[in-house]
Amino acid sequence: MALRENFPNEPVKITLPRIYDPRGSLTVVEEQNQIPFDIARVYWIYDVPGGEERGAHSHRKLQQLMMAVSGSLDIEVTDGFTTKVFTLNKPFEGLYLPPGIWRRMFNFSSGSCLLSIVSLPYDEKEYIRDYDEFIENARKRGPIITQE
Question: Is 59 designated active site?
Fold first, then answer.
């Protein structure tokens, strides 16, 4: 429970454990250990054609950890007040996204694979796909991302 209480409530890049071995490295993610939520679903995005974008939505309650397990990509996040861009290009780094963050994934390299570990099963009602609705909710909620 301490991880949940002490984890930042904003998008943050985290370094995951790496276990080195001459036969190849291994990285692990465990619920309530590296991430502050129970794992309900895992999915991956791959074979993204050059120039295409993914995402363009927010979640009402879902928490997420995104990792480029192969290749690289950029993820633009906004809380409706502040926007940041994160580059994922190491299989032992992940981007944690709390609820209420609009995300857009782009600049997928050839052969990239984006793995997502999320806190809720799929439910279309959990998504906010309309940017104006997202901004309206953000104004009611207030900022999430701290400015640097």
Answer: no
